[in-house]
């Protein structure tokens, strides 16, 4: 494991608990490897923005005082934080975030798939939001990891920091991808994989995924009222 990762994990594990200022810190990690063409990239970004605009999702983000970060990832050493942590305290904040995601430029086009490297970069970002009580990585992908560290090598760090990893498997060219993500990528209590048969299915599936991981979990928190919980059933 890299020295920087060890330092980050050690520092986080020793931080004293602080009063929570937010219920949720959410990393949105989007696959931009070479198997994703320009149209498919556009489908992902527009679909993600539409999912954040969904009334159930945006309301849950506001109630959670959520922090949301967008990263894009490809091959080894080709992952980046595209949009740093944004606090969602209002519907206007949610809309502004959706617009920034729609407008985000693509950093790479023709590189490999390094899922493990993406997970390590994502987990490092939580150092900036220690006040958030729940930490979630939402990772999309359309292929198996074929470069860099294996995804399982990140599991220890994820568990130590209480990070949940959920995934959306886009099986357009890899019909066994859901099983691979289930066995190697997702982590944490209640972690799950949502399957999109193709990129065309991505917008509806990412909306379902966001509702499940953001809205339902937020509604189940002790301070949520029964009416909000019922509305999500």
Automatic annotation (TrEMBL):
Residues 1-21 form the signal peptide. Gene3D superfamilies: von Willebrand factor, type A domain (3.40.50.410). Keywords: Signal. The keyword Signal applies. InterPro entries: DUF1194, VWF_A, vWFA_dom_sf. It comes from the Bacteria. Residues 25-214 form the VWFA domain. The keyword Signal applies. This is DUF1194 domain-containing protein.
């Amino acid at each position: 494991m890299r020295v920087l990762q060890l330092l980050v994990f050690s520092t986080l594990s020793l931080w004293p608990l602080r009063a929570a200022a937010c219920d949720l810190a959410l990393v949105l990690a989007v696959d931009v490897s070479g198997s994703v063409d320009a149209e498919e990239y556009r489908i992902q970004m527009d679909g993600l923005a539409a999912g954040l605009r969904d009334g159930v999702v945006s309301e849950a983000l506001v109630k959670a005082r959520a922090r949301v970060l967008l990263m894009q990832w490809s091959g080894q050493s080709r992952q980046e934080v595209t949009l740093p942590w944004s606090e969602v305290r209002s519907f206007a904040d949610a809309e502004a975030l959706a617009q920034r995601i729609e407008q985000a430029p693509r950093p790479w086009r023709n590189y490999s798939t390094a899922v493990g490297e993406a997970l390590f970069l994502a987990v490092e970002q939580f150092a900036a939001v220690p006040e958030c009580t729940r930490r979630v990585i939402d990772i999309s992908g359309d292929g198996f990891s074929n470069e860099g560290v294996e995804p399982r090598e990140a599991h220890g760090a994820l568990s130590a920091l209480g990070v949940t990893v959920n995934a959306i498997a886009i099986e357009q060219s890899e019909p066994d991808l859901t099983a691979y993500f289930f066995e190697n990528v997702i982590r944490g209590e209640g972690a799950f994989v949502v399957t999109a048969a193709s990129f065309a299915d991505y917008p509806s599936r990412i909306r379902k995924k966001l509702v499940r991981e953001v809205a339902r979990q937020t509604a189940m928190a002790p301070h949520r009222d029964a009416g909000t919980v019922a509305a999500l059933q």
